[in-house]
């Protein structure tokens, strides 16, 4: 066990002693601060939120009626309208204003979209994890130690995940700090409204944010694992980065295009966004959270097995 | 030379095929404690491939490698724990300092203290530059750092693929002396590969010649360059044609060359008087006789067929 920790220590040393890693961290910080400044300068003062919410409700009702008149309407879409309307009515009834982007929690919520940067940077690290050792030639010295290849691979994988979650923590903390400094901490104690089991409920905002980050990290973990697998299988970091980023951007579009085919629900990208089951519309009627999680686990097992086979069974000719 | 009975390394019928091409063909040899074993062969002979199989980087197609009696294939961790090595170039993490590189490898074995790291650094003479990033190192300094990481855990077998590549003459001298010292004094077995013949001659106790993946010959260095074995005989004689015919009849398996009035053939030193008396008996006038021991280089070229050496 302690030998695994030492291996992870080694991998971390190799990640954090490279300038490229710190460039990525700084880019992430710049993105958060930039976003803060953008929100600050573009937000307009609107002190009568009740009026705004009422207009929103009217707009949603109109859209709902329009949808109902369609022949092939989707039940899920209607339900989604109902949920939104009910939450907004709850706001009016209980005097809970919605969170604008220029508030503490509002900004954190807004900047959680920057997890795609975290995913991008983690892909770059994951793609180099195995492949770089081959291109540096250091793999030959790494593998002639009294440590099994499986353990070395595991330490590399865990270090990748550690990097991913550290970057996620950097995103959260820098967003909180930027949000607080730019917009004040006034809204800190405000609750978040969710719609569960047919009723509107109040939950803590922190809990809600952790939920959002948790769901975002599903995408993060699965794409990083994919990049890690590519790295191990092809022993080329550029190929691993290229393919993973290509899939990250194109994957969701492709699965949307194939939505009419029943089997498309098994595509990885139809399942990575678990928020679709919480406050969105499922990719396909009949898909559930359990289904998506099972599909994700399936992909995960395949990625990990391929990485392992490629790393432990093949000759090292670098 | 010290030679205890138990070999440190046993290679048994090792073969490697890649894409149906036989790269290593039925190699068998043993290394004993306290000897420096040279692996000599032209480019592409299969030296590095053999080393890769010995350290488990490549799977052997056939055959076995035992290190201190433990199979590298079946008992990798125990077998490799006895080995320190460099395979091809000493490639290190360039963005880390030399010292951090050593710390990195020390974390992968048990029982390497900070003191041991400092000791090894001193041993390879890098103490002034060890905290600099490896990307600023010269090739020779990297070679030294490579040796340092191989020695870190005090292995019983040191495998070095072309260790003197890139070293200056004094560095070569140092390493050569050091390798001989740890072999002869501490009983470490050292396997060095090279195609630098003069190098091997000075460094090794035994030399194995490998060509096209086959082990052609294993000899102790003394035998190899031994004065009492093969010599290049040169006889200045008149008439040269008659002498050639006589010698061709007497030594049918030898290659006999004639250049002007000199007749040359490779023979055992012991046979020189016999050749002389044979020529005298047949009324050949002999003006001079030369019998020079073959250099290792000549021997090597003879064994490998020449030309392919770099
Ligand atoms: N991965 C590989 N795929 C195919 N052929 C290979 C591979 N690795 C080595 N070879 C071939 O095996 C033979 C032996 O190569 P090896 O590197 O072991 O030679 P070497 O004796 O170390 O040569 P050098 O003195 O140049 O270092 C060469 O003919 C080489 O082309
Ligand atoms: Mg070689």
UniProtKB/TrEMBL annotation, chain B:
Keyword NAD found: no
Record-linked Gene3D superfamilies = P-loop containing nucleotide triphosphate hydrolases (3.40.50.300)
Question: In which domain of life is the source organism classified?
Answer: Bacteria
Segment forming the signal sequence: none
Pfam families under this entry? ABC_tran
- Report which residue ranges the record marks as coiled coil: none
- Please tell me whether the keyword Transport is annotated for this protein: yes
Alphabetized UniProt keyword annotations: ATP-binding, Nucleotide-binding, Transport
Which Gene Ontology molecular function entries are recorded, alphabetically?
ATP binding; ATP hydrolysis activity
> Domain ABC transporter, which positions?
9-237
The entry assigns this protein to a family as follows:
Belongs to the ABC transporter superfamily.
Name it. ABC transporter ATP-binding protein
This protein's species is: Exobacillus caeni
